[in-house]
């Protein structure tokens, strides 16, 4: 992670690619980063279909709710969520895990799946570990 030949965004993109390539039910993998002044999330590196939702207000959608709650959000079925921002009609489920640097929630990893209800506690523990490693880049 400390190889200076690659920028932080290049490393984050590589993390997204590894996850999307190796876990069959991870369809879209990306990072959002918080601006605490404007209370908005901003799309960072991602792998998967381009999304119109590059800026998300705190509180809005699954991602915006995690910016406020500081807790993992596992959505087995996005159709059952009222406060949800659809990026693609093929997406059936989502998991968002906050990214903490020195105890501060600076953003999140967001994963969409085309599979219904695929995420388990193993995904949560794994993505918490990924984010702990990613936090070392900051
Ligand atoms: N579905 C998310 C929006 C981001 S896209 O999944 C890339 C949400 O409800 O916050």
From TrEMBL:
Domain GAF: 14-130
Pfam families tied to this protein: GAF_2
A GO molecular-function descriptor: L-methionine-(R)-S-oxide reductase activity
InterPro entries documented for this protein: GAF, GAF-like_dom_sf, Phosphatase_reg/MetRdx
Domain of life: Bacteria
Gene3D superfamilies linked to this entry: 3.30.450.40
A Gene Ontology cellular-component term: cytosol
Family per record: Belongs to the free Met sulfoxide reductase family.
Name under which the protein is recorded: GAF domain-containing protein
Originating organism: Flavobacterium humi
Classification of source organism: Bacteria, Pseudomonadati, Bacteroidota, Flavobacteriia, Flavobacteriales
């Amino acid at each position: 992670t400390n190889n200076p030949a690659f920028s932080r965004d290049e490393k984050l993109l590589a993390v997204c690619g590894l996850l999307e390539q190796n876990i069959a039910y991870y369809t879209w993998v990306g990072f959002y980063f918080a601006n605490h002044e404007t209370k908005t999330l901003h799309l960072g590196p991602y792998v998967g279909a381009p999304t119109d939702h590059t800026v998300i207000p705190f509180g809005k959608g699954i991602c915006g709710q995690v910016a406020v709650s500081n807790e993992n959000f596992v959505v087995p079925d996005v159709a059952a969520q009222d406060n949800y921002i659809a990026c693609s009609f093929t997406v059936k489920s989502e998991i968002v895990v906050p990214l903490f640097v020195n105890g501060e929630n600076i953003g999140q990893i967001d994963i969409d799946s085309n599979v219904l209800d695929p995420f388990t506690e193993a995904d949560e523990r794994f993505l918490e570990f990924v984010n702990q490693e990613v936090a070392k880049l900051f």
